[in-house]
Each structure stands twice: as structure tokens, then as C-alpha cells.
Design a protein that fits this description.
The protein is mainly alpha-helical. It contains nine helices and two strands; from the N terminus they run H-H-H-H-H-H-H-E-E-H-H. A two-stranded antiparallel sheet has the order 1-2. The N and C termini lie far apart (44 Å).
């Protein structure tokens, strides 16, 4: 626990706490950065920090527990200040997940309500236009694990069931574009990175190999998407 507390403390050291900073509450991506270069950072950090507070808060030192509570309060401001809309699928859903998770961690029901309203807005847009970051080898997986945070930590059963149905849709979308023989996603897609297709090691590859329980691919460290008792897709989206 000493090492874990040291890591938590180091992470919190990289939050922007400048009172007059336009990126107050956000995080530096790298240890040598002195300012926030990417405002998306807080959207990725907030669910994990909330998870620590919810699941492992009792293992933190008193100093770290106090710092983490304050950090999450600052994260709320940074998440809400992020200018993206629901067409920026992965970040919008991460913002929603952040608010739901922080609501649970801070015992503030208004934050979960805010997150739920954002999820509803995304569902309404997707019903009209489809997923804007469509079939992305990277960000389709981020959409899924953002909603998995909500599924496992929301206090509202209505929200959890709404998210479960949405996860069914997203998982089905992933597997409908999955090339089973090649072992990679296929078809026209939106945002991707150079190695996503060539190596078969995109985040969607990681997402796909977990539910179908294949062990013959070395995916690497980014396979850490398992939240413990994660949402499992129904059989109809798995190979026969």
C-alpha cells in the first residue's frame, strides 16, 4: 500500500491547481509537462480517480484521502469546462461517466443526474445520426468502457438499465464489423492511429478478445480494460 499511495500522490501532483488558470482542475499528460496541453486528460483521469475513492478509499493515507476528495471537486469544474459536444463521442461519454463516478465518490446525486442527462443527449443524437466516431478502431472501445463505468457505479437502476441497452448496441456494432478470420476490425471507419489496423493491437482488438475469451493473441499492457465483473455482451454478438 505504501507504493500505491505514493503513485496516487504523484498523480495528484500533476493536477493544475492554478487559481487563475484556464485549465484549473485538469491534468498534465506527462511527468515533465508544466502546463495542460490536452484538455481531454481530465475526462480520462476522473473515472479512475473516482474508482480509487469508491473501491479503495479505505486503503489511502489520511493525507491522500483528503487530497483525492479535493482533487475530484476540482475535476468537476474541469470536466464541465471542457467544450466538446455529444458528436465527440468518446470524450462526451467519458465526461458523462466522470460525473456519474464523481457523484458516487462524493455522494452528490446532482452529479449523477448531470451525467445521465448527457448520456440521454448522446443517445438522442446517435438515434438520428449514428455514432459520430463510427467504427473507430480506438474510440469505439473508449465509448464502451466509459459506459461500463456507469453501468457498474451508477446508483440509479433506471440509468444502469438504459446504459446496459446502450452497451448491447455498442458491442453489437463492434462485432458486426469484426473480421473473425483476420482477427481485426474491418470496414470503413472514422478516427484511427497508424498501428490500429496493421498490428491488430487497437483498443477495439483488446475489447474484442476479452469477451470471446481468446488467449492466442499477445495484446500488451493496454488490455487492462477489465473493471471486475464487467458488462458481458449477449451471446448473439459472439461467434457461433
Amino acid at each position: 500500500m505504501e507504493r500505491a499511495n505514493a503513485i496516487v500522490s504523484a498523480v495528484l501532483d500533476h493536477q493544475d491547481l492554478g487559481k487563475d488558470s484556464p485549465t484549473f482542475g485538469n491534468f498534465h499528460w506527462w511527468g515533465d509537462e508544466t502546463s495542460v496541453g490536452d484538455r481531454n486528460a481530465v475526462c480520462f483521469m476522473s473515472p479512475w480517480l473516482s474508482h480509487i475513492a469508491i473501491e479503495h478509499g479505505g486503503k489511502l493515507t489520511a493525507a491522500n484521502a483528503s487530497r483525492l476528495h479535493a482533487s475530484l471537486s476540482h475535476c468537476i469544474l474541469a470536466v464541465r469546462a471542457h467544450p466538446s459536444g455529444p458528436d465527440y463521442s468518446n470524450i462526451w461519454l467519458l465526461k458523462a461517466a466522470s460525473l456519474v463516478m464523481m457523484g458516487r465518490a462524493l455522494e452528490d446525486a446532482s452529479l449523477e443526474a448531470d451525467g445521465a442527462e448527457r448520456i440521454q443527449r448522446w443517445i438522442e443524437l446517435t438515434a438520428k445520426s449514428g455514432v459520430c466516431e463510427y467504427n473507430s478502431p480506438c474510440y469505439s472501445a473508449v465509448n464502451v468502457y466509459a459506459l461500463e463505468w456507469v453501468y457498474h457505479h451508477a446508483t440509479s437502476e433506471r440509468l444502469r438499465q438504459q446504459v446496459a441497452r446502450t452497451l448491447d448496441y455498442l458491442y453489437a456494432d463492434v462485432f458486426q464489423h469484426w473480421h473473425w478470420e483476420a482477427g481485426i476490425g474491418a470496414g470503413t471507419h472514422s478516427r484511427a492511429y497508424p498501428d490500429d489496423r496493421e498490428t491488430g493491437m487497437s483498443l477495439v482488438s483488446c475489447l474484442a478478445w476479452i469477451p470471446i475469451q481468446r488467449t492466442d493473441l499477445r495484446i500488451g499492457p493496454v488490455v487492462g480494460l477489465d473493471l471486475g465483473g464487467r458488462f458481458t455482451p449477449y451471446e448473439h454478438v459472439q461467434p457461433s
